[in-house]
Amino acid sequence: MKVIRNLAFISAACLAFSGTVPVLPAVSAAAAEESVTAADACGEQVSWKLEDGTLTVFGKGEMYDYIYPPHYVTTVKGQHSEGMTPEEQAELNGISDLFGPNEVSLSLLPWGKHLDEIQKIVIEEGVTGIGQNAFSDCIAAENITIADSVTDIRYHAFSHCQRLQSLKLPKNLKTIGEYAFSQCGLYSEGIDKIDIPDGTESIGMEAFSYCTNLTSVTLPDTIQYVGVRAFDGTKWFDDKREQEQFIIEGGVLLGYGGRFKDSIVIPDGVRVIGGGALESAAHNSDDLNPVLKITVPEGVETLCDFAFCWCSTAQEITLPSTLKTIHDSAFFNCFDLKQINLPEGLNTIGYCAFGNCESLTAVTIPKSAAEIGARALIRCNQLQTVTVLNPEMIIADSPETITNGDEPAFCSYNGVIRGYAGSTAEAYAKKYGRTFKVLSEEQTAPAPSVTTGDVNCDQKIDVSDAVLLARFLTADKDAVVTEAGIQHADVDKNGKQDSDDLTMLLRFIAKKIRF
Q: Into how many domains does the chain fold?
């Protein structure tokens, strides 16, 4: 690592005097078997070579993240450098352009002077992570081959590869970062199909935005998060917005192209409300009445960033019992939202989740909630009561987390925080001068209504539910199951009722498993 640091220092000096990016020579593939400590480094144990227009990356582990100077806030040589200027960090560590365990200045991108010469990019087996900005602006690259060992493709990794014609994503991929393939394949023969592999969990903001020739996209049912405008500007998404009311792929609601009068009912089968999916939906109503009510169906587990942002006239949003995560700014600027029922089972409330919900008067955060992010309830002007039922819930340590006033600095709150004695809610209230009211043991939240497994809707789960489900599955005409009961019968939450649900229900009744 010392050699790399010295190299970085020398390279920075070259930049200072010549204003050019040094070109670092490549070495043989055998060098990747050892820790990379020479000019070919693009990761701790990852190397590169450029031959006849083909850029090959090989070795083991993750590539470096190539970052801009404002992002330098990491540690080097065990020294904590948070809050220091890049110059102070350089003086402390004796280097100028290498920071953190895996971050390098973008000015030291080894192939930086050859971006317009690279026609093909090959990531070989053994590499696991593709670094930030690593291949951005490879404007001549027509083909990218990525080995199945890669699980993580990071921020802007391949953005602006304008001539890209073919792309196959690795089968073990887990995450696709923000802008990872943005503006790829802009020309007439550009990529027209993307199949996100099974097992992928996250797609970042604008990951494939403005890949203009893209006409086919498939998402697996393993996707748990899709960022804002992930596919905006693609022919595939634009056509769907013109043709379909709800743009749904792989159980993810990606957008809304419909018109409405007073309500939106999201169809069954959706698991994830994607980033910005209903953002500004009310503005699409033209001269019709603005939306007043939005219903989110059972089975939805995740609301991604800005999912309902700017649904400013929505007065009521019904959330399902299956909801687990509310990401950042999900309800930001829902000015008219008067009430929200956060279900038991909800785990996380993100940054600014209910920011500027000016009409909210009371919020009860369920016992299941483990964390609430900074500014989650900022500028909720009419908010008078926040009840926290988890005595150990992590509350973002900021006066802006719960506020209902504009001054001073949007940090004031004249309402009441309710929670248990000795709880984190009490500690938060005392630290920031909020009025706190202690809940007695008798004031715990009412038990949640029985849903999963309650096929006959009698608020309990027993053999009678299993019998009714068995009769229903065998098409017994005398087995009457309500619409709610049919939803409750989907025990494994896969969007259908079958023998697997019956098996799980019987195991639950026998106390072999828990829902």
A: 1
Distance CA 7, CA 160 (A): 29
Residue 118 lies in a domain: no
Residue 157 has pLDDT above 60, yes or no: yes
- Residue 131 maps to a domain: no
**Do 30 and 45 contact (CB within 8 A), yes or no?**
no
Measured in degrees and rounded to the nearest 5, phi and psi for residue 451 equal -130, -70
- Residue that is written with structure tokens 């309902």 in the block: 308
CB 182 within 8 A of CB 176: no
pLDDT score at 97: 55
Q: Report if residue 263 sits inside a domain.
A: no
Domain that holds residue 493: 463-509
CA nearest to 359, candidates 381, 341, 375: 381
pTM of the model: 0.75
The model's pLDDT over 52-95, given as tens digits with 9 standing for 90+, comes to 999 999 999 999 999 876 444 443 334 444 555 544 544 444 33
> How many helices and strands in the chain, by DSSP H and E?
7, 32
Using only the alpha carbons of the chain, give its radius of gyration. 27
Cα–Cα distance for residue pair 62/472, rounded to 1 Å: 52
